[in-house]
Amino acid sequence: MRDLSGIVKAYDIRGVVGEQIDTEVVRDLGAAFARFVGGPAVVIGYDMRDSSPSLAAAFAEGVTGQGVDVVDIGLASTDMLYFASGRLELPGAMFTASHNPAKYNGIKLCRAGASPVGQDSGLSEIRQMVEDGVPGFLGAKGSVSQRDMLDGYAEFLGTLVDLSGIRPLKVVVDAGNGMGGHTVPRVFDGLPVEIVPMYFELDGNFPNHEANPLDPKNLVDLQAKVREVGADAGVAFDGDADRCFVVDADGNPVSPSAITALVAVRELAKDPGGTIIHNLITSKGVPEIVTEHGGKAVRTRVGHSFIKQTMAETGAIFGGEHSAHYYFRDFWRADSGMLAALHVLAALGETDRPLSELMAQYSRYSASGEINSTVADQAGRMAAVREAFAGEGVEIDELDGLTVDLGDGSWFNLRASNTEPLLRLNIEAPSDEAVAELRDRVLAIVRA
Question: Which of 12, 53, 208, 215 has the lowest CB atom count within 10 Å?
């Protein structure tokens, strides 16, 4: 029996092409997905990786072999695939490994309306079907049709955030040779925004730097270019352009928590009293600002399936994560880095202040960023940290890993990685000094 445990992750399918993922297994995954969703059609998009077109074609063979049609939208960002799924009311498959190196590829699956398919919402059944052998289909094969969704995607985003009346802006965009190079020119066409492009050439070998702006070393080129050309801001997208990272005119990164707070305030202005979702690693400033603006803040676990599920349950208008994923009710509760970028630029273009000044009101605390430690005994180290702090009158919860609130504005979260022998530490405190002190104390236990 096949074993797909190495490639079926919590939220998607991902692995090394030729070793873990090939056209044969992808064809079977397509057949299993077709049986899982039941038709009438599946929309398929893919990124710029060398392996993506052939893997997408194999998946399409599996789908049509089960009597289900395929709508092929070709090159796409992940949020463009979500747009197609929502607009066409069809389940979808996006071929991408996001920010992973060139040798990787994968599949993000969704039901009609961009509803996520994760481990607990269908991915385990699809995996089981492939491992057991997908049943054959005796009826007529499905058909494949091509459809260009880029114009519709760009026009739809323009209905959600209006930049037409803002002051002229100069913005450096680092696409990292990823799908932002495909979508940004169309989205910003005709807007009062001068785009200074960096690495817009689609190249799945990532010749300039990894398409992972979460790693500070991959922002260096963007920061330098922003200062060089005197831009108002810089924006970096990851490989499949579903996440965006922002730097100000001085090249200083803007925290995703501050962007979450800014977008939340803008969405609450349109929908007073609405619910805003934030995961437990975003800044405490986010729920404070949401409450001050008349909204209701709801805290969730980390991960898009939890965010989207909670948004559906609460009717939330917006959700944000510390990892720069931003979710919008009006975008089928899906995440869109492009839509978040448009919000930031709209807010900047509506004021004469620089971005650093605009964002200062949304940045209330100092943060460590994510600190990873390689640990063999994750549970044992977490228990040791819990024991060390338990007797100090702190507030402890275990919604997702271990969160310890010291009650003085300082808190930390320690979580085990789903896929690696890592513990991930995030700290927030009133000052850089307090962050450093708490970091050193927790890491001394974790790494003992």
Answer: 215
Given 189, 219, 251, the domain boundary residue is 251
Distances (CA, A) of 80 to 242, 271, 404: 9, 25, 38
- Indicate whether 120 and 33 sit together in one domain: yes
Pairing of strands 326-328, 402-405: unpaired
How many Cβ atoms sit within 10 Å of the Cβ of residue 115? Answer: 21
**Of 106, 132, 148, which marks where a domain is finished?**
148
Q: Where are the beta strands (DSSP E) in 140-249?
A: 144-146, 169-174, 193-198, 233-237, 244-247
Is 89 in the same domain as 142?
A: yes
CB 240 within 8 A of CB 77: yes
The answer for residues whose C-beta is within 8 angstroms of residue 148's C-beta and 6 or more apart is 73, 74
The CATH number of residue 168's host domain is 3.40.120.10
* Residue 343 belongs to a domain: no
Q: Is the pTM of this model over 0.85?
A: yes
| Statement to judge: residues 376 and 263 lie in one domain | no
Are 20 and 97 members of one domain?
A: yes
Residue 6: CB atoms within 10 Å: 13
How does residue 303 score in pLDDT terms, banded at 50, 70 and 90?
confident
The answer as to whether 5 is a domain residue is no
% the chain with pLDDT above 90: 94
- Long-range CB pairs of 287-292, under 8 A, 24+ apart, other chains included: 288/364, 289/261, 289/264, 289/265, 289/362, 290/261, 290/264, 290/265
Looking at the fold, whether 331 and 418 belong to one and the same domain comes out as: no
- Please check whether residue 198 is in contact with residue 212, taking contact to mean a CB–CB distance below 8 angstroms: no
Average pLDDT over residues 391-405: 94
Known catalytic residues are 98
State which residues form the domain around 201: 152-251
User: Domain count of the chain?
Assistant: 4
Helix, strand, or coil (residue 340): helix
Are 312 and 431 contained in the same domain? no
For residue 11, the model assigns a pLDDT of 86
pLDDT tens-digit readout, 55-69 = 999 999 999 999 999
Q: How far is CA 324 from CA 99, 136, 341, in A?
A: 13, 41, 11
Per-residue pLDDT averaged across 293-302, rounded? 96
Q: Is the predicted pLDDT of residue 419 greater than 70, yes or no?
A: no
